[in-house]
Design brief:
This protein is of the alpha+beta class and about 575 residues long. It is built from twelve helices and 29 strands. The strands form seven sheets. Strands 1, 2, 6, 7, 24, 25, 26, 27, 28 and 29 form a ten-stranded mixed sheet that branches. Strands 9-10-11-22-21-20 form a six-stranded mixed sheet, covered by helices on one side. Strands 3-4-5 form a three-stranded antiparallel sheet, with no helix packed on it. Strand 28 and strand 29 form a beta hairpin. The protein is elongated. The relative contact order is 0.14. This is Ubiquitin-conjugating enzyme E2C-binding protein. It comes from Populus davidiana.
């Protein structure tokens, strides 16, 4: 039997972590009635709260039935009810807070055999990357699917899963080695360079972090880039002070190594600028010639000796095409005070005797922390040489991820990041076998927001466009440990035995403001607010920010209008 709500009364239950109080907001979404003779009666046997009142002396009594969530209520404590300007507020006393370990134990006992509730509770589990890694690794093979259209995104099942290196690892490594101890300088630099050379996005391997999976572009079905097989060169900005290949050296490289410009991993044919082709990557090794290219010393006021540069500041100018064999070595001549030396890379054996090692653009960007997942980036993760572009589903064109590129459309590291909130690990999408069903854009964002608040001790954040760097969302974390549930009230004329069973969901309370259409004067005020309050600044794709704003704004309906504004900002909640 359907439970109707002809008067359009809505309710929202709310409690805080470690708090023994449960609060009810009861309001009419279409009007602001005048409440008189307010009474609230608790009926624990039928799990509902009966609220009665009159709008004036002449009208009949209004009765509203509100379902009670699954909590431990103290039946001996009084029920406090009061009428405010546009809502009714009721307070109940709990025997135990909603997040008390004993309450969690009751859920684990599974006293009811309701399958749907068990699935709902499973969706509330924390977003833990280690759990995803273990679950995916235990499967025989995994395909990824688009959530919007159920299109299969991968060519073949993926069987190897590894953890994506953290973009903040250099700082931790420096702390571990100890920057003040000179004896570890050479050892740490060598280990860091070896670590960078080991970083890659090979075919058949899926790298995971808390918000995305990184796949080789060759593992994705229908993955096309306009410059996929073009050799990608790294041209740093002049102000960076890095030494680069001179135009003469680049011409020498194109002449001497003209046999190779791309390797088509799908058809197994090597294509060269001289028009010749081979049958496989292995023929590339049989030429027996090392590709040589010279680094010319720039004669500028800001030029410095190449030998004085650390290995991490050197960047190889040619990145192998997808599918090319790693055993192909490039020999580099570099000028030192002692003359010209030949350096071979990037094999591990050569690294042991190499006096200086060059890092490819993807390895250099990785060392500098620029190759994250683009879901949420910080100022130290940004680079003028790396541009993040959206990756859409080949079938429905829905946004499903992003990839880093430089001087073109080809991914820098040949890797594409797929956001967990937009993909599925099985069909049907969101089914019991879908390991990513609990991931949503809101939960991923709140998880990062709460973690940042703990690490940075900042509860004020400005979200900027990753491309334009302009502010789009101002958000203040008010309470990271709230529990809420909301819905429509029940008609007292309906079957009293038909009671909705509710569960409180973890949420965070926030104050927010949409800054995407702010005027110049408003933007100046916002920038002053950021500086004055030392607000945290993060960067996201504009599409993600717009979707977040829509979601946060839509959640305002869960509270009465008088409770949705504070200090010039809108009040809302987001699932945690």
């Amino acid at each position: 039997m359907s439970l109707k709500n002809p008067e359009k009364w809505r309710f929202t239950w709310e409690t805080q972590s470690q708090s023994p109080n449960l609060k009810l907001f009861l309001f009419n979404s279409q009007s602001k009635p005048s409440v008189h003779h307010l009474q609230a009666q608790l009926n624990l046997a039928k799990s509902h709260l009966l609220v009665t009142f009159t709008e004036n002396e002449e009208t009949s009594e209004v009765s509203i039935r509100v379902p009670i969530p699954r909590v431990l209520i103290d039946p001996e404590s009084p029920v406090n009810a009061k009428a405010s300007d546009d809502h009714i507020e009721v307070k109940l006393v709990l025997l135990l807070p909603v997040d008390h370990p004993l309450v969690s134990t009751f859920d684990l006992l599974n006293l009811s055999d309701e399958i749907e509730r068990n699935e709902d509770l499973d969706l509330l589990k924390p977003l833990i990357m280690d759990s995803d890694l273990k679950s995916l690794s235990s499967m025989e093979g995994v395909h990824f699917y688009c959530r919007s259209c159920s299109n299969r995104l991968t060519r073949s099942p993926l069987k190897q899963f590894v953890e994506m290196p953290s973009v903040n690892w250099p700082e931790m490594a420096d702390n571990w080695f100890g920057g003040c101890c000179c004896s570890f300088g050479g050892a740490s630099e060598k280990l860091v360079n070896r670590y960078a050379h080991a970083y890659a996005c090979p075919m058949g391997v899926c790298m995971l972090n808390s918000t995305a999976v990184t796949l080789c572009s060759d593992d994705l079905a229908g993955c096309k880039f306009s410059e996929k097989y073009r050799i990608q060169t790294y041209k740093p900005e002049q102000e960076s002070g890095d030494e680069g290949l001179s135009e003469e050296a680049m011409r020498d490289f194109e002449t001497e190594s003209g046999r190779v410009t791309r390797c088509d991993s799908q058809c197994g044919v090597i294509h060269g600028v001289n028009g010749k082709s081979g049958s496989s990557c292995s023929k590339l090794e049989n030429h027996g010639e090392n590709v040589k290219f010279k680094v010319a010393e720039e004669k500028t006021n800001s030029s410095i000796s190449l030998s004085a540069l650390p290995a991490s500041d050197l960047s190889e100018k040619v990145a192998p095409g997808p599918g090319c064999c790693d055993s192909v070595h490039h020999t580099q001549d570099y000028t030192d005070e002692g003359g010209i030396h030949d350096v071979c890379g990037p094999s591990l054996e050569d690294q042991k005797t190499t006096k200086a090692m060059e890092l490819r653009i993807n390895q250099r960007s990785f060392l500098n922390g620029f190759l994250g997942d683009a879901f949420i980036a910080r100022s130290y993760n940004l680079s003028t040489d790396i541009e993040w572009k959206q990756f859409v589903c080949p079938q429905c064109s829905s946004l499903i991820g992003a990839y880093p590129c430089a001087n073109g459309d080809m991914p820098v590291d040949d890797g594409v990041r797929l956001f967990k909130c937009y993909i599925s690990t099985s069909l049907p999408v969101g089914g019991p076998a879908d390991l990513f069903r609990k991931y949503t854009l809101e939960r991923m964002f709140t998880s990062q927001l709460v973690e940042s608040a703990k690490d940075e001790l900042s509860f004020r954040t400005v979200v900027r466009d990753l491309r334009t760097k302009s502010p789009m969302l101002q958000i203040v974390l008010v309470n990271p440990n709230s529990w809420c549930c909301s819905g429509d009230c029940l008609d007292t004329k309906s079957n009293t035995d038909s009671v909705l069973k509710l569960d409180l969901h973890p949420v965070i309370k926030v104050l927010f403001s949409d800054c995407s259409s702010n005027t110049e004067s408003q933007l100046r005020v916002l920038e002053d607010w950021v500086t004055k309050n030392q607000a945290d600044e993060v960067f996201m794709l504009a599409h993600l920010i717009k979707e977040l704003i829509e979601t946060i704004a839509s959640a305002k309906v869960e509270f009465p209008p008088s409770c949705t504004f504070l200090q010039g900002l809108s009040f809302s909640s987001m699932p945690r």
